[in-house]
Amino acid sequence: MMNCKQATHLMSEDLDRPLRWRERMALRFHLMMCGGCRNFRQQIAFLRAAMRMRSGGN
Amino acid sequence: MAVDVCRGIFRFTRIPAGYIAVMTRGHLSPEASVTLADRLQGFFGEHRADLVRFATLQLRDPAMAEDAVQETLIAVLQGHAEFANRSTVKTWVFSILKRKIIDALRVRQREVPISQLGGSDEEREGFDTLFDQRGHWATEHRPHRWADPDDSLEQQQFWRVFELCLDHLPERTSRVFMMREFLELDTDEICQELAITTSNCWVILHRARMSLRLCLEETWFTH
Higher pLDDT residue, B22 or B99? Predict the structure, then answer.
C-alpha cells in the first residue's frame, strides 16, 4: 500500500503529467484515509494558484 | 541604435509619438502613433518596475533582467501590428517579456549548465525527517489545513513571505520550479532545455513544492 511519502510524489507529479489509471486509483484510495495528504494536496494546488497570480499576467 | 532610443524613452516623462513612428518604421499613421505612444506610456509608466522585478526574480541577475525589459520594449514597439489585436497591453507585454526571459535562460544554460550548479547533493530529499519509518507523516509534521488561503493572496505581507520562501530554494531547484510555474513550460521542454531527465525534473519539482509548503507553513500559516 502507498505511504504518505510516495503519495506526495504522485500528488506533485499530478501537476506535471497525467497520472496513470493505477496511480490515480492508488492515490485516491490513500487520500480517502489520510487527512494530512488531503491537506498537502490543497496546499500544493494553492502554491500553483499563488504562482499564477504572482506572474502578473492576471 | 534601437536600444539607445529605448533607454532614452525611459528618461522621458512622456513617450514621444515620433519615436513610435521611427520604431514602427512609418507603418502607423501619425494618429495611430500618438495612440500607441499614449497606451505604452501608460503601461510602462505604471508597470516598468513590475517588469524589472518580474525579470529579476526569474533571472536573479539585475543586469540580465534590465536587458530583458529593454528588449521587451523594443519588441513591443516593433510588434505594433500584433498589438492592434490585443485587448490588454499588460498580457501582451508580459508574454513578450516571458519569451525574452526564456531566451536569456537559454543563453545562461549554455554558459552555466544546471549540472554545474552546486547543491545537488544536499538537496537530495532532506525531507525524510517529516516522515516516520514507514513513510507516513510524523505526527508533528502532518500537514494542517491552512486557514483562509484565498484571504492570504490579498495581503501584501503574504507576498513578501512568499518571495522569501522562493528565495530560499536552492538554485537548481529554483531554476526548474520557476520554468515550470512561472514561465509555464511543460516538463518536456524544461528537460530539453536543461538536459536533465524527465524523472529528475519531477523529483526536483516535488522537492520545490515540499520546500515551499513547509516554508509557508512555518512562517505564514502558523497556528
Answer: B99
